[in-house]
Task: structure prediction
Amino acid sequence: YDTYVVKKGDSLWSIAAKPEIYGKASKWRRILEANADLLKGNPDLVKIGMTLNIPRDEGGGSNTTYDDEGITFKK
Result:
């Protein structure tokens, strides 16, 4: 998983649409499912400052964190 810190105005739909995430808003359910413990199946529970897990395809994970400062790479 990568992580993403929710910013003002974000929704699962808008996060999934970001080119650095999936580039397709329709993939928002992947984020919802990966964060079931936080969101309890409700996309309306997304809050500013919340750190969400962003699932990547097998072999495609990059250990990248997206936050207010842009992209941060973990080693």
About this structure: Residues 58-62 have pLDDT under 50 and may be disordered. The radius of gyration is 11 Å. The helical segments are 12-17, 28-34, 36-39.
